[in-house]
Amino acid sequence: MGALTLSNVTKSFGTTDVIKGVDLQVEDGEFCVFVGPSGCGKSTLLRMIAGLEDCTGGEIAIDGKRVNEVAPAKRELAMVFQSYALYPHLTVRDNMGLALKQAGVSKPDITKATDRAADMLSLGPLLDRRPAELSGGQRQRVAIGRAIVRTPKLFLFDEPLSNLDAALRVATRIEIARLHRDLAATMIYVTHDQIEAMTLADRIVVLRAGRVEQVGAPMELYNDPANTFVAGFIGSPQMNFLKAGALGMRSDTMGVRPEHLALSREAGQMPGTVSHVEKLGGETLVYVNAEAQGLLTVRLFGEHNFNVGEAVHITPDASRAFHFDANGQRLR
Ligand SMILES: Nc1ncnc2c1ncn2[C@@H]1O[C@H](COP(=O)(O)OP(=O)(O)OP(=O)(O)O)[C@@H](O)[C@H]1O
């Protein structure tokens, strides 16, 4: 069991309000990802759930029980940070088993728990090594292993992959997803990497300046964003926002994803000039200065030879466009 309820949770540091009333229900076994721009309060909210920060107001409950006054160690949760914080003088096995040892668990039970975690994370051959003898990715796996052995109700991850290189990030991300399936545990995961959010989450919570903008399954947020902020935050490259009036529309802003803009040398709805081209292998991103509409991003599949300075025309796929009012709220 590991259901989490946040009810009107607030946090202020002195006179600065950082979390401004968050309500959220995370179901037992759910993988919930907090995303949002730097400084929006993701880590603060996670640290409040962990008990590392007090709540200024509101209530945090785990399995229906208020935990505001419960010490972090008593909340039956495990936190994995960006920095692995392993003990350099201890072996992998001892690093993973330390919390159990401190809790007075018997030696055979510690061995059983660490062996099981090592097995899940393919750390078996590394159990006798010390952190200095491990790669960054291996160290992060040990930090995750250290969380698993305690069989917590809730796993809290704070940007756990941001110190890893691109290939390791992908490998460890897949490992975390597999672990979630195997353990069926509740996981709360903070990231600013939206590929991690999209691929790992059952539900994503989009935060802005201490408030929840939208909560939903990844594809729900992608296909049905509530406002320009969520529309612009979910999806990479970012959605284009066009001045709808200039295109004869009644809405204020029309949002079109880069893959839903057609690019032509001959004719189209909006004239422009190619300002930059990025060939990524499987796809080509063409940045077009579309006069009154500003800089637009067009995503083409495969390799395309558009040249900087070339005159082009852009046509949005109206059937895939999103419309927003002057306050950025979605018009449906
Ligand atoms: N101990 C503190 N004292 C004062 N202000 C703080 C403290 N901790 C965080 N803040 C402020 O609270 C806001 C939210 O910080 P937080 O670290 O939660 O953001 P974040 O969304 O996790 O950002 P990032 O993605 O950059 O890590 C920031 O404006 C930060 O400066």
Topology summary:
Layout: E1 4-13, E2 16-26, E3 31-35, H1 42-50, E4 57-62, E5 65-66, E6 77-80, H2 92-102, H3 107-120, H4 136-148, E7 154-158, H5 166-183, E8 186-190, H6 194-200, E9 203-208, E10 211-216, H7 218-223, H8 228-233, E11 240-243, E12 253-256, E13 261-264, E14 270-279, E15 283-289, E16 295-301, E17 311-316, E18 322-324, E19 330-331
Parallel strand pairs: 3-8, 3-9, 6-7, 7-8
Antiparallel strand pairs: 1-2, 1-4, 4-5, 9-10, 11-12, 12-18, 13-17, 14-15, 14-17, 15-16, 18-19
Helix pairs in contact: 2-3, 2-4, 3-4
Keywords:
globular; ABC-type maltose transporter activity; single chain; binds adenosine-5'-triphosphate; 19 strands; Rossmann fold; ATP-binding; 2 domains; nucleotide-binding; 332 residues; ATP hydrolysis activity
Describe the structure.
The protein has 332 residues and is α+β, with helices and mostly antiparallel strands. The protein has 2 domains: 4-230, P-loop containing nucleotide triphosphate hydrolases (Rossmann fold, 3-Layer(aba) Sandwich); 237-331, OB fold (Dihydrolipoamide Acetyltransferase, E2P). The protein is built from 8 helices and 19 strands. The chain has a 6-stranded mixed β-sheet with strand order 6-7-8-3-9-10, sandwiched between helices. Strands 13-17-14-15-16 form a 5-stranded antiparallel β-sheet, with no helix packed on it. The radius of gyration is 23 Å and the shape is globular. The two termini are 38 Å apart. It binds adenosine-5'-triphosphate. The site of adenosine-5'-triphosphate has 12 residues, from β2 and α1. Belongs to the ABC transporter superfamily. It comes from Cypionkella aquatica. GO terms for molecular function: ABC-type maltose transporter activity; ATP binding; ATP hydrolysis activity.
